[in-house]
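Subject — a protein and its fold
Encoding — discrete vocabulary of local shapes:
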Amino acid sequence: MPAIHLTEDDFKKAIQSSQPVLVDFWAPWCGPCKALGPTIDKLSEEFKDKAVVAKVNVDDVPGLAAEFEVSSIPTVKIFKSGKEIESFTGAFPQSKYQKVLEANL
């Protein structure tokens, strides 16, 4: 199950979830973002009933990237109940994201 793609309109509602919400800020021209894509999709499948896994294309919604201080991509942010609880800049192994999601279930 691939990650959902968020727009500016549905982003703020999505991060209000009581479940952890992992958001991958990416762009289609970004090599490391493309490399991270399969990891994000695997997390979406693994946590499908326990967490929300989403992507935001920073080219489509640059305002969100600016608002959440995304200056480099890929950046993965994890939210819960509207609050940012973790942020990673760069591509990391799947286990790093899993640990944060599991700790916040």
In short: The chain has a mean pLDDT of 96. The chain is about 35% helix and 25% strand. The beta strands are 4-5, 21-26, 52-57, 75-80, 83-89. The helical segments are 8-14, 31-46, 62-67, 94-103.
